[in-house]
């Protein structure tokens, strides 16, 4: 291998050597780097090619016969990390591919192409960009640094930071040195996400890393709004990162400063989850809450707001009005109503959607669901069951008016029948009293016969 290099060097000393400018290649650590090397002459195949790194010797070489060789230091590093695609040789393309590049791979590379009596040398500067966080998973309140290094560092380059696809302009804590840029601060949830370092030089390169801050992960940030329907069951979340076991945990409602203690802890929750469960949400439950716990000697806390929704019914002469009310409507952009009914088989069907905070119903009993939306989509919903009597009050009033005469007539006939029955009962009782005295009965019977006889004689005359 050494002999081949000496021979190639002697050959190069007797031929014309063409040198071009240095090509810049910026890649992220761990990715693939492609170092360009092309023969600009129309016919330079077959050719001998040597790839070498400045001050480190041969990386890869190919003879005109097609035989390939790797430098000893490269053939033993994590397997075969360097190669040139054979399919490109006949096109004069001898670009070198380096897999899983490392910081130590950065530096100046030379590609020498020998054909006929010429040697063409291409210079490629490979720069490795690496972004790292220390520590990788800090706890809230810990010191954390995010660094961007370029190996070797290009003079005159400058760095921009992107956090979660948005330009990050730190006000304090940025340190620039000869190798890159370092950002330092206290770990908070606002630093969680994907950090991207953009290096601006002759070319633009970038590299990224993910920073996770251990602490309270649910809710993800302070003053998170949670929506619940009146009478529903709700869990106010307060979950710490896996592996963290908080002590001295506490819940409090910030309006009155009183502690809120769950009636019972859900056995299915892990030791890092201190969420608070409300069995039946009431209007008085609305407001701001704070959960807190001690982790590694420091208190971590998170605030949230519970917003309660309800449907209020108002009756009119021939209709019912339903209004969707929430205790805080600052984030609500739209309301919509859906009428839900069920057939005899229990199949659910939904009617057309109506817009607005208030809906007016006529003869529409059953379930009505109010859904309310914010800027990013639905926030919650609440359902109300309209009683059948309320929905059909107008029909029943009309039916009563049309049947009033019939009811009155039936009542009068029933009254006459009761009077007749009462009179019959009195006559029966009177006869029973008379039959108890036989002499009196004979006298009454005789008088009755005499009166009948007198009547008959009068009629004959």
UniProtKB/TrEMBL annotation:
The answer to whether the entry has keyword Transmembrane is yes
- At the top level of its lineage, which domain of life is listed? Eukaryota
Chain segments annotated as transmembrane: 404-425
Q: Which GO terms describe its biological process?
A: interleukin-15-mediated signaling pathway; positive regulation of ERK1 and ERK2 cascade; T cell activation
InterPro entries associated with the record = Ig-like_dom, Ig-like_dom_sf, Ig-like_fold, Ig_sub, Ig_sub2, Ig_V-set
Record GO cellular component, one term: external side of plasma membrane
Among the Pfam families in the record, one is: V-set
Domain Ig-like, residue spans? 12-121, 140-214, 219-301
UniProt keyword list? Membrane, Signal, Transmembrane, Transmembrane helix
Q: What is this protein called?
A: (Atlantic silverside) hypothetical protein
Which species is this UniProt entry from? Answer: Menidia menidia (Atlantic silverside)
């Amino acid at each position: 291998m050494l002999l081949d290099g000496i021979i190639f060097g002697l050959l190069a000393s007797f031929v014309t050597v063409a040198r071009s400018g240095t090509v810049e290649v910026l890649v992220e650590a761990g990715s693939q780097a492609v170092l360009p090397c092309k023969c600009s002459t129309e016919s330079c195949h077959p050719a001998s090619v040597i790839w070498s790194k400045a001050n480190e010797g041969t990386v890869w070489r190919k003879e005109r016969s097609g035989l390939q060789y790797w430098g000893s230091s490269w053939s033993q590093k994590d397997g075969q990390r360097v190669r040139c695609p054979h399919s490109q040789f006949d096109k004069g393309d001898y670009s070198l591919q380096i897999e899983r590049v490392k910081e130590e791979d950065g530096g100046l590379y030379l590609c020498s192409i020998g054909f006929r009596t010429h040697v063409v040398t291409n210079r490629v500067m490979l720069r490795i960009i690496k972004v790292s966080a220390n520590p990788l998973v800090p706890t809230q309140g810990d010191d954390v640094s995010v660094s961007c290094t370029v190996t070797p560092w290009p003079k005159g380059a400058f760095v921009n930071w992107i956090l979660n696809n948005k330009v990050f302009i730190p006000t304090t804590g940025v340190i620039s040195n000869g190798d890159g840029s370092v950002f330092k601060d206290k770990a908070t949830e606002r630093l969680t996400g994907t950090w991207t370092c953009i290096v601006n030089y002759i070319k633009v390169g970038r590299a990224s890393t993910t920073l996770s801050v251990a602490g309270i992960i649910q809710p993800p940030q302070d003053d998170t709004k949670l929506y619940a329907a009146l009478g529903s069951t709700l869990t106010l979340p307060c979950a710490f990162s896996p592996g963290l076991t908080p002590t001295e945990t506490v819940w409090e409602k910030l309006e009155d400063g009183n502690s809120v203690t769950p009636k019972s802890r859900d056995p299915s929750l892990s030791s890092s989850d201190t969420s608070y469960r409300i069995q039946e949400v009431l209007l008085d439950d609305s407001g701001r809450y704070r959960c807190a716990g001690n982790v590694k000697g420091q208190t971590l806390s998170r605030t949230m707001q519970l917003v309660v929704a309800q449907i209020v019914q108002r009756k009119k002469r021939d209709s019912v009005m339903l209004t969707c009310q929430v205790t805080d409507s600052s984030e609500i952009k739209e309301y919509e109503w859906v009428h839900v009914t069920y057939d005899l088989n229990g199949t659910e069907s939904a009617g057309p959607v109506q817009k607005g905070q208030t809906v007016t119903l006529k003869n529409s009993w059953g379930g009505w669901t109010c859904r309310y939306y914010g800027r990013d989509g639905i926030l919650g919903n609440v359902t109300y069951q309209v009683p059948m009597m309320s929905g059909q009050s107008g029909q029943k009033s009309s039916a009563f008016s049309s049947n009033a005469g019939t009811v009155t007539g039936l009542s009068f006939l029933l009254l006459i029948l009761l009077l007749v029955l009462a009179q019959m009962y009195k006559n029966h009782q009177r006869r029973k009293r008379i039959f108890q005295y036989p002499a009196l009965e004979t006298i009454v019977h005789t008088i009755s016969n005499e009166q009948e006889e007198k009547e008959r004689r009068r009629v004959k005359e």
